[in-house]
Amino acid sequence: MPPITxxxxxxxxxxxAANVECDIRVLKDTFQxxxxxxxxxxxxxxEWVPAASDGHLLKSVGFExxxxxxxxxxxxxxxxxxxxxxxxxxxxxxxPFIDITFEVPNPPDNxxxxxxxxxxxxYSTYRGS
Length: 129
Known about the structure:
This protein is mostly beta strands. It has a single domain, classed as Transthyretin/hydroxyisourate hydrolase domain (Immunoglobulin-like, Sandwich), CATH 2.60.40.180. It has helices at about 55-60, 85; strands at about 5-10, 15, 20-25, 30-40, 50, 65, 65-70, 75-80, 100-105, 110-120, 120-125. The strands form three sheets. Strands 5-4-3-8-9 form a five-stranded antiparallel β-sheet. The longest helix is centred in the middle third of the chain and has 7 residues, at about 55-60. The chain is globular, with a radius of gyration of 14 Å. The model has no long low-confidence stretch (mean pLDDT about 95).
């Protein structure tokens, strides 16, 4: 399991939001995108795929051999690409994407879980377990 996970629940349908593209970034001078994922049928990100070709950036956030094995402190941001999810269901949305920004302290805990409760016109989040 990666050190940062997320889970999306579609509150309008009362079910997980599957196949939502998610990007994760870390704040250096600006936000640097370093991995991508899609939610599975349970609405969860099971694995992040490295997107950065900058090996130094990947190593700085804890990637080794294309696996996210440890976590560095810092400010992270997950972008949930919600527009396509709703368009595939013939729905509209007010939020084409949702950015959730959070800080991992030093020293970091072993795991951070970011749930997203989502509807066409609103969302809520919290630090999960």
